Amino acid sequence: MRGFKVFSGNAHQEFSREFAKHLNVVLSKITLNRFSDGEIGVQINESVRGKDVFVIQPTCTPANDNLMELLIMADAFKRSSANSITAVIPYFGYARQDRKAAPRVPITAKLVADLIQYAGINRVITMDLHAGQIQGFFDIPVDNLYGSIIFQDYVRNKKLKNPIIASPDIGGVTRARYFGKKLGLDLVIVDKRRERANESEVMNIIGDVNGKDVVLVDDIIDTAGTMCKAAQALKDKGANSVMALGTHAVLSGLAIKRIQESVLDEVIVSNSIPLQQECSKITVLNVAPLFAEVVRRIYHNESVNSLFI
After folding, report:
1. Contact (CB, 8 A) for 287 and 268
2. Tens digits of per-residue pLDDT, 158-193?
3. DSSP symbol at 163
């Protein structure tokens, strides 16, 4: 694959090495450092003139540092006459700020999209955007990959006796329904609400889970509060087991502790974000080969969509 170079930021170098391995290439050389005041310094250590550059950088915690590092790398590639710059962003940070949910608040996902384009990036490859409309914030191609392609194989191989798909809230119904359709399974919904102000949340289950092996589907597991409460509600309604799937393991605050102490039998995540702390209930699936295959197809002008049909 001549004319093709892969660079990695600091956010997830293990992912980058796996990515390069599956493309049978070596990560290109770049120096990333910090000045004494914390500013980011970048030095590309080999020529990229006329090359198609792929730079790998999820914008996970610390989101601001990782985003800024990506932008500065892109500017360096642009000023070094790269032919094209593709940002491989397994986890797209700030995606939850995708609309004006209240007066006088920003649409930060749009701001980030603008910054990425202004830095000189020509294409973005990401996975399971929190909101599909974020693709429309860009005026460049955005490949939003579906994590379900790896999760569905895992669930099938578990050979659950009486499986059913569940959405942990009303907002995730479309995502859960899509996953259920892929596996040919029915869907139930956890409806979370407060009956009165200052009263604890009530979890209502829409559908029958008695004796079922429930698979909770979500895109991001952050504090894990909703996921753990939903699992408890499902078990209270007679579920035999509850497995949770979450593409992006943000796992902030007390998330790991909540998962460990919850009734969840297993939590399956991807390695789009580096796992900061081990947990016996968490299984990590490798999506680097999927991203590598997508890059190979893009480079050779082959169909990406056919991977997910």
Report:
1. no
2. 999 999 999 988 888 988 999 999 999 999 999 877
3. E
Phi-psi region of 139 (alpha: psi -120 to 50; beta: other; left: phi over 0): alpha
Cβ proximity of 256 and 241 under 8 Å: no
What is the rounded distance in angstroms from the CA atom of residue 49 to the CA atom of residue 84? 10
Q: Which is it for the CA torsion 93, 98, 100, 106, positive or negative?
A: positive
pTM: 0.93
Please report, in angstroms and rounded to a whole number, the separation of the first and last CA atoms in the chain.
Answer: 26
CA proximity to 213, closest of 228, 235, 192, 230: 235
Q: What is the DSSP string of 237-264?
A: TT-SEEEEEEEEE---TTHHHHHHHSS-
- As a whole number of angstroms, the distance between CA 234 and CA 166 comes to 9
Mean pLDDT of 63-70: 97
| Run of H or E including 171 | none
Nearest-angstrom CA–CA distance, 189 and 41: 48
The residues assigned a catalytic role are 192
CA distance 252 to 179: 25
Listed residue (61, 81, 68) closest to 119, CA to CA: 68
* Banded pLDDT at 305 (limits 50, 70, 90): confident
- Angle in degrees, 0-180, between the axes of helices 148-158 and 173-183, rounded to the nearest 10: 50
